[in-house]
Amino acid sequence: MQNYYTCYCDTENPFSDCCEPFLKNTKQAKTPLQLMRSRFTAYKLGGYGEYLLKTWFPLMSQGLDVAELSQKSRDWQHLTIINKSQLGDNGLVEFKAQYLDAAGAEQTHHEHSIFKRIKGVWLYIGEEITSK
Ligand SMILES: [Zn+2]
């Protein structure tokens, strides 16, 4: 048994030393991966709509509000980072995240997330649309 809460974002780090400082606005994500992980944790825990909105490129989050984003829209289970890359102020993170659907069956959300650093702050742009 662990004597601290391991973070939800697929690290072995304690929550208090991983995503929590980002969610509580005491630290700012230094990499797209940190931001991606913290946003997953925000979705997983619920109640962090303000953080999700703050870390979202404004043009891409139009029409979304804090109350909506604070709801646990899905029963998120587990995050797996597949790939990440960063070139200057542009970042990409590929991940898979498992969640349970209404019937309790495990589903997988697979996304290539695009991030951009604007005035020193990493923001989530959105999901890369790939031709499948
Ligand atoms: Zn974390």
Summarize the structure.
Helix content is 22%, strand content 33%.
Write structural notes for this entry.
By secondary structure, the chain is of the alpha+beta class. Helices cover 22% and strands 33% of the residues. It is built from 4 helices and 4 strands, in the order ααααββββ. Strands 1-2-3-4 form a 4-stranded antiparallel beta sheet, with helices on one face. The longest helix is centred in the first third of the chain and has 14 residues, at 32-45. It binds zinc ion. Zinc ion (ZN) binds at residues 7, 9, 11, 18-19, 37, 41.
Largest sheet: 4 strands, antiparallel
Mean pLDDT: 94
Helix-strand topology string: HHHHEEEE
Which kinds of small molecule does this entry bind, naming each only once? zinc ion
Low-pLDDT parts are none
**Helix content range:** 10-25%
Q: Treating each run of at least 4 consecutive H or I residues as one helix, how many helices?
A: 4
Q: What would you report as the Rg, rounded to the nearest angstrom?
A: 14 Å
Main-sheet strand order equals 1-2-3-4
* Gap from first CA to last CA: 42 Å
Structural class: alpha+beta
Percent strand? 25-35%
Q: Give the overall silhouette.
A: globular
